[in-house]
Each structure stands twice: as C-alpha cells, then as structure tokens.
Design brief:
It is a single chain. It is built from 4 helices and 5 strands. With about 140 residues, it is of the alpha+beta class. The longest helix has 24 residues. Helices cover about 35% and strands about 30% of the residues.
Length: about 140
C-alpha cells in the first residue's frame, strides 16, 4: 500500500515540477509584472522594430490596437532610437516616463495609461498599454 502512495506522490510532484518549468521557459511569470516592466518591454520592442513585441504590450481593447502595431506609427513618435528609461513616476495605473533618446542626455516625457490585467491561474497581475500621450496629446489610445 505504501509503495503505491509513494509512486503517486512522486508522479504528482514530478508533474508539478514539469508544469512550473514549462511556465518559466514560456516566459510566463508567476508573480506578474510591474507597470515599469511592461513599459520597458514596450520600448525594447520599439527600439528593435519588433512589431509583434509592440502589439503584445498594447491593450487589445484600445481603439488603435489593430493599426498601432506597425513600426511606421512608432517611428513618428520615437524617431531617434534607441530610447532608454531615465525616470518613471507611477500613480495608480498611470506612469509619467522620461526617455533619453540615443543617449543624448536630454529627456522626453510621455504619459502611459495602463490597463491592469487580472491574474491568471499560473501568473500574477500584468499590464497593457491603453493610452500614450506626449505634451497632452494622445497618439495611441
């Protein structure tokens, strides 16, 4: 009787370990991500011209979601790449982010409004970019 219980326990623990390894290898986070993490992923995708990476960061309910994954749009608002984050002030689900284009030492300020995505069974809370504005004018919404 003990041998069957030991085998079942071993199989269950092995399955859990394999499931956790698959989640981590797939790039999923069990603890979620911060707003700054998501904005960092977004600007990395913009810097590299990764259209799918950009789209992955955007809120699919945003009006411009289907047209905003092209690099043409982002080249207009982030022309002097690469950009690096030099400041990030978060209030609720809004972040005011200072970017340094091409390491020039100057700072361009953008406001990101984020959507908080509900945690999934295997992951924590994540965020999507719902709106981006510069000087009070939204260019993604």
């Amino acid at each position: 009787m003990k041998k069957k219980t030991t085998i079942k326990t071993g199989l269950m623990l092995g399955s859990i370990v394999l499931l956790l390894a698959a989640v981590l290898l797939a790039g999923c986070s069990l603890s979620g991500e911060t707003i700054r993490d998501r904005i960092g992923k977004f600007i990395d995708a913009v810097n590299s011209g990764d259209e799918q990476g950009i789209k992955d960061c955007l809120d699919p309910t945003a009006t411009m979601y289907n047209t905003a994954s092209t690099t043409d749009l982002w080249n207009t608002y982030f022309p002097n790449r690469p950009y690096s984050i030099v400041s990030c002030i978060i209030s609720g689900n809004t972040a005011t982010v200072g970017f340094d284009p091409m390491g020039t030492g100057s700072t361009l300020s953008y406001v990101f409004e984020m959507t908080e995505n509900k945690p999934t069974f295997l992951g924590g809370t994540t965020y999507s970019v719902r709106r981006i504005s510069n000087n009070g004018t939204a260019f993604f919404y």
